[in-house]
Amino acid sequence: MNDSTQRQPPGLTQALAPAGAPALPLHAVSPAALPALLAGLPPATAQFLHATGFAAKPQECQLLPGPEGLAGAVLGLGLGEAVPGPWSFGALPYLLPAGTAWTLADAVPEVAAQAALGWALGAYRYSRFKAPPRAPAQLALPPGCEAALQQAAAIWRARDLINTPANLLGPAELAAAAQEVAAREGARCEIIAGEELAEGFPALHAVGAGSPRTPRVIVIEWGVADAPLVALCGKGVCFDTGGLDLKPSSAMLRMKKDMGGAALALGLAEMVMQAKLPVRLLLLIGAVENAVSGESFRPLDVLRSRAGLSIEVGNTDAEGRLVLADLLTYAVERSPALVLDFATLTGAARVALGPDLPALFTPDDALAETLLAAGQTTDDPLWRLPLHKGYDSWLDSSVAEMNNVSNRPMAGAIIGALFLKRFVPDAVRWAHVDVYAWNDATRPGRPEGGEAQAIRAALRAISTLFDGVAATHG
């Protein structure tokens, strides 16, 4: 299993040309480089390309004719950065003719890696129940792009989890998916359920008590004892009805994606292990279903948390923060060097930032700068919102140590983050990422459906923070 191609989802493998197979040249060119490309093409081909009006605009693609029919293609990169991002190449698998294979012409390694990542992400379609209308064009993988392919494979698997209907992906199935990743990467995996869960993760257990699909916590550990510990926590609410504070049907429609934080944390953990970063990894996933029954937790219930803090339930639809509260408490008990949590936590974050910008919360300015810079470098952006202390009192309760919501209809994303902050001591380096985990429409490299936002940025940030740390991994 050392060959990276053996780890790829079958659909991704189909988007890659077999080694040594004939492939047509694909020229990726900016407007400034277009004259040089024209000068290097055969005169008839250059004249044809000029006649089409090709101007190397972003996503502009032109097939090139030749004596035997198709001789190649040219992709416009526009006036962007010197090294184009992956989305520049993301439309190509379904834009170029089906059944064709392509190789990048004269691409430097940095561009080749971006092209491989964009191509692989653009080839994704959720095909468990319905085959794509056509096969993708294939890319002959350039040398040195194994890391890009590993990341793409992890993102494919995360997208598949988010896209899977909730009747087929409950807490047990989410746990099984995590166990598969752990087994593939040689990591240790433990599933906590039943009485042990009720005692050790009481707030999380309360959220899942209303469903016949019993809740569980997935614990994956990887690495060696002397490496710095990075803890990843993921909200795995496999479906969210809102509980007794029932969502309207329009708000419930996409709630199969409410386990997106868990899918992202699992995908990031897979990337970290594949890259063999010099860290010790702790992955925690709270897998629950927020359902309605006689066992459901109720508005104004007071719950116990793993941290010992009492929580009044102001709204049963603010359940994800209850799940994360117990996970964060478990994580900080292990004295981590870094804690990152991922959750589809609030609609308020989407109102503030839209679907493409996950909201980043952290009290650590240096950590924020590292994550934001990593997001820019990887074309996987985040946007920082404040943990405004002035709003902390909005979580006060008259009967418990805190409420899980504010009674004010404002600053919902900040309030959710402030709630989580109560379970993370000031001395612990921590960041919370509030994600949408979904593409509302298909764009190059980002098909409609589940999306693994922020995890390529997080991988780069972890690598940056722990670069040079000496550790040996088994």
Task: Give a written overview of the molecule.
By secondary structure, this protein is α/β, with parallel strands linked by helices. It has 2 domains: 141 residues, 3-Layer(aba) Sandwich (Leucine Aminopeptidase, subunit E, domain 1); 315 residues, Aminopeptidase, CATH 3.40.630. Helix content is 34%, strand content 19%. It is built from 16 helices and 18 strands. Helix 6 runs antiparallel to helix 11, helix 7 runs parallel beside helix 11 and helix 14 crosses helix 16. The C terminus is likely disordered.
Computed CA radius of gyration, to the nearest angstrom: 24 Å
Helical content (DSSP H or I, runs of 4+): 25-40%
Average pLDDT, all residues: 95
Instruction: Please list the strands of the largest sheet in the order they lie side by side.
Output: 6-7-9-8-12-16-13-14
CATH architecture of the largest domain, by name, is 3-Layer(aba) Sandwich
Which CATH C-level class of the largest domain is it? Alpha Beta
- The percent range for strand residues is 15-25%
Instruction: Report the span from N to C terminus.
Output: 15 Å
In short:
With 474 residues, the protein is of the alpha/beta class.
Q: What key attributes describe this structure?
A:
474 residues; alpha/beta; Leucine Aminopeptidase, subunit E, domain 1; Aminopeptidase; 2 domains; eight-stranded mixed sheet; five-stranded mixed sheet; Peptidase_M17_C
Topology:
Layout: H1 10-14, E1 24-29, H2 34-40, H3 43-51, E2 61-66, E3 69-76, H4 92-95, E4 101-104, H5 109-122, E5 138-139, H6 146-163, H7 171-185, E6 188-192, H8 194-200, H9 202-208, E7 216-222, E8 229-240, H10 249-252, H11 260-275, E9 280-290, E10 302-304, E11 310-312, H12 320-332, E12 338-343, H13 347-353, E13 359-361, H14 365-377, E14 383-384, E15 402-403, H15 412-421, E16 430-434, E17 438-439, E18 449-450, H16 455-465
Parallel strand pairs: 1-3, 1-4, 4-5, 8-9, 8-12, 11-15, 12-16, 13-14
Antiparallel strand pairs: 2-3, 6-7, 7-9, 10-11, 13-16, 17-18
